[in-house]
Design goal:
Layout lengths: L13 H10 L6 H11 L4 E4 L6 H13 L16 E4 L3 H14 L7 E4 L6 H9 L3 E4 L1 H9 L10 E4 L2 H6 L3 H9 L6 E6 L4 H10 L4 E4 L10 E7 L5 H11 L10 E4 L3 H13 L4 E4 L5 H13 L4 E4 L14 E4 L6 H8 L9 E7 L4 H11 L5 E3 L2 H9 L24 H5 L8 H8 L1 H10 L3
Parallel strand pairs: 1-6, 1-7, 2-4, 2-5, 3-4, 5-6, 8-13, 8-14, 9-11, 9-12, 10-11, 12-13
The structure holds adenosine monophosphate (AMP).
Length: 453
């Protein structure tokens, strides 16, 4: 059972197998191969899942299977009490998890509801009052609904804490504790986290009973299929460097397509989006101050390809699932090294390859060192390739304008460029694991090799 070739080995209901086939899933991902049998057996699970590994189906399929005996077509709300609760840190992740669960349960009569803050409570209230077996929620809004008696958790059999590390980072521990107290003690509990701190372990110890620990990736690892590049730039040249990358670092030296750009602050998010738009890039922003509708609209337009660049703060780092997103660029190095893991996890998802580029200024060196410590990787921090650097400085024509004297330790664009890299700009080669080391032997091989320890 540890390495089943397809989903038929798990003993899942035909309704679930058909839904999986509808979605085009052929082979379980490693976390699914491990988590599904354990969760089906009713055990508690502590999952250390790499980002984009398919963990939603890893807990979602067994959850639905275990609730199937309760599926019914009655119109009475009393026949549809909440039996499974999934808590997530952000609205985006809640929506995404709920969407996936709805797809997995599409051929059953089980109902899935999604509740999160920042939007009108009324439509959610209606859905909850009609009754639904599976509720996906952010903690604060769920407590609001519980306070108003729009729903009850007294019949919950299964609870999932998704992205538990992020929930703790966002200060949800008191809310989570209040919610957990409202659940029956007889229940199955599952917890997933990409990174594991002492606080996470404490929460797991209090919340899980003899959990089966499932680890499909090295702890605190970045996804193996993501190629990580670091370019050192002057603070004043960051936006131009980003534009140069967007225009000339795609396949065959062309523009990059569908790039998620991360920044550290809302104000930078707004400013950078405007700058990109002025430079002719189809860009939009997604951050905590935007209305949920605006965020959803921007995300949908990005998914459709109507906008090329989505500029995001970390609120969007979790839960964004864009199939085969080719590249992520960190315009700012995240303050929290764990956010780096989550940010770049938006690319290279579910077996696809990805490229994660980070622009680093002298002031951000320490933040990069913290990421190296967390990921146990040593990054090759380079100046921007010279052709791109020329675009930054001389907009592509003539020799680069003379460099202002670099600050100590900041050589920026003065190092020789690598012809091989420029002759064949990277962007998501296939298959990445082989193509990348062939192109840039020492450094990338070391990176990828470093990721396997
Ligand atoms: P998750 O980590 O759950 O957010 O899943 C990441 C992406 O992988 C989603 O788009 C899923 O629909 C997709 N996915 C999950 N499991 C599989 C599978 N077994 N085969 C192909 N795609 C999958």
């Amino acid at each position: 059972m540890s390495d089943p070739k397809d989903f038929s080995h798990f003993g899942l209901d035909p309704a679930l197998l058909a839904a999986i086939a509808d979605l085009g899933y052929v082979k379980p991902t490693p976390i699914q191969a491990k988590a599904i049998p354990v969760a089906l057996a009713g055990r508690d699970v502590m999952g250390a899942a790499q980002t984009g590994t398919g963990k939603t189906a890893g807990f979602g399929l067994p959850l639905i299977q275990r609730l199937l005996p309760h599926a019914n077509t009655s119109a009475s709300p009393a026949r549809h009490p909440v039996r499974a609760l999934v808590l997530t840190p952000t609205r985006e992740l809640a929506e995404q998890v709920a969407d996936n669960l709805k797809k997995y349960a599409a051929r059953t009569t089980l109902r899935v509801a999604c509740v999160y803050g920042g939007v009108d409570m009324e439509p959610q209230t209606e859905v909850l009052r009609r009754g639904c077996e599976i509720v996906v929620a952010t903690p604060g809004r769920l407590l609001d609904h519980l306070q108003q008696r729009n729903t009850s958790l007294s019949q919950v059999q299964i609870v999932v804490l998704d992205e538990a590390d992020r929930m703790l980072d966002m200060g949800f521990l008191p809310d989570i504790s209040r919610i957990l107290k409202l659940l029956p003690s007889q229940r199955q509990s599952l917890m997933f986290s990409a990174t594991f701190s002492d606080d996470i372990r404490k929460l797991a110890a209090s919340f899980l009973r003899e959990p089966v620990v499932i680890e499909v990736a090295r702890r605190n690892a970045t996804a193996d299929l993501i190629r990580q590049e670091f370019f050192k730039v002057h603070e004043s040249e960051k936006t131009d460097a980003l534009l140069a990358l967007l225009r000339g670092y795609g396949r065959d030296g062309g523009p990059m397509k569908q790039v998620l750009v991360f920044v550290n602050a809302k104000v930078v998010c707004r400013r950078l989006t405007r700058q990109l738009q002025r430079a002719g890039v189809k860009a939009d922003a997604i951050h905590g101050d935007r209305l949920q509708e605006e965020r959803t609209r921007a995300l949908d337009a990005f998914k459709r390809g109507d906008i090329e660049v989505l500029v995001a703060t970390d609120v969007a780092a979790r839960g964004l699932d864009i199939v085969e997103l080719p590249a992520v660029i960190n315009y700012d190095v995240p303050f929290n090294p764990e956010d780096y893991v989550h940010r770049i996890g938006r690319t290279g998802r579910a077996g696809a390859t990805g490229l994660a580029i980070t622009l680093m200024t002298g002031a951000e060196e320490r933040a990069v060192a913290a990421i190296e410590k967390l990921t146990k990787l040593k990054f090759d921090i380079r100046p921007l390739p010279v052709l791109l650097a020329r675009r930054v400085r001389g907009r592509g024509e003539g020799p680069a304008r003379p460099a202002s004297p670099p600050a100590p330790g900041e050589e920026f664009f003065n190092k020789p460029y690598e012809p091989a890299l420029l002759a064949q700009p990277p962007s998501v080669p296939e298959p990445a694991a082989e193509a990348v080391p062939a192109r840039r032997p020492g450094k990338v091989a070391a990176l990828l090799g470093g990721g396997k320890h």
